[in-house]
Amino acid sequence: MQQVVFGLIGAGGIAQSQHLPNLTRAPHVTLKSVCDVRPDALQQAQRQYAIPHATTDYRSLLSDPEIQAVVVATREDMQASLTIEALQAGKHVYVEKPLASTSDECAAVVAAQKETGRFVAVGFNRRFAPAYRKAKEIVAAEGGPWNIHYRLSDDYWRWGKSYPPRVRVIHEVCHIFDLLRWLTGSEAASVYCVESRPDDEIITLKFRSGCVASIMSSGYATMDLPKERLEVITEKGAVTVEDFVELRTFGFAHREPVLRFAGHTHPDREFTHKYLFEAEGAAALFALRRMGWALRNEAEAADALSGEPAPDAQEMRRYLNQTGPLWNYMVNKGWLPALDHFAERILTNEKPENAAAEDGLRASVLCHAAIRSRDNNEVVSLNGFDG
User: Fold this and answer.
1) Is residue 38 helix, strand or coil?
2) H or E stretch including 21?
3) I need a labelling partner for 316 at 20 to 30 A (CA). Which of 15, 67, 113, 170 fits?
4) Model confidence over 101-155: pLDDT tens digits?
């Protein structure tokens, strides 16, 4: 099988949880080089994944004529400029979301992509989640979407403490803006956003197709609640997806009422959830998340009682943090198929189905429209935006 030679810029959290294992198991990819400013992260990645070359200088990676494509997975404020440099160096680019912090930076990437003729894929991987691809297929065949509700909730209050308040919409909800555009095949005509407290919001959208959508975005949930749920009303009937593992249809006598999907695994972590989700769907997901939440509470209670890390909680912490599944990454959100599809289309020189640079720009426009709506308590019209 032909393979595309890739380089990876950035060996941080998302690279360790997704890009490094996926680049080394995608059928159409060979990973030649990894770059990071931290020598210890480079050494760990190179040793763990048998990567031939490692460097702290991204320019040396971009100047390598054998490397055809790069994955950019750095801080948000660096991704647009690195993507442009990589395009100008003749590389195709898979860049993490959000493409940039501002719409102007996104527009600069769009211009560079058009100028160089190289492919850009933005990491809106949900377009490749097996459950969502099936949901789109069913919805399209049953009259299209007319009303959509999406819940995106997690314990951001715990893991997102390093971010300033009220920016979750930029680095999390951007995913859902892209997904709604993809599901509807339409652009948003207007956006309205209200909040009850910082990072606890409801966003409503009216699409040019006539579809309406609402997003419940909350960073105040706990880990026993599955992170995402999709509900779509069609012409007459409905489709729901529970956190990528279980799809249900309603009102369609000719369709399976329940479909279940395998989970996503990491080579260093426990993997039985992959098969449990395929066999039991949402029931397995609820049970695993409840168990993880209970173990975390027990470990924290034991630590609080002793005033320091408690020896009797060591096994629980090891499972939660080192050997058990990556809790928000154990469902199949499409990371690996999105990357491999991008590589395959590079080989065939066909336009990828991934979200492109222009899709990153459109998602950014929606993010900033939602922020403007929230801050000014107004409905923001987008009818004049054509890309």
Assistant:
1) coil
2) helix 20-23
3) 15
4) 899 999 999 999 999 999 999 999 999 999 999 999 999 999 999 999 999 999 9
